[in-house]
């Protein structure tokens, strides 16, 4: 999550992609992330100006 909150755009994209990929391959961890409040944190990231990493944040939310 901290990587997606960084000012470094490349780090944000890679962090969001990693989360999306992990959820796609290990969906059993989804409930843990939901209980940790990850959904609210991901939604709050979408409030910032449009960015390439939003695609991966939305992908992670779809899992």
TrEMBL record:
| Origin superkingdom | Eukaryota
Q: Which InterPro entries match?
A: ARM-like, ARM-type_fold
Task: Write down what this protein is called.
Answer: HPBP1 protein
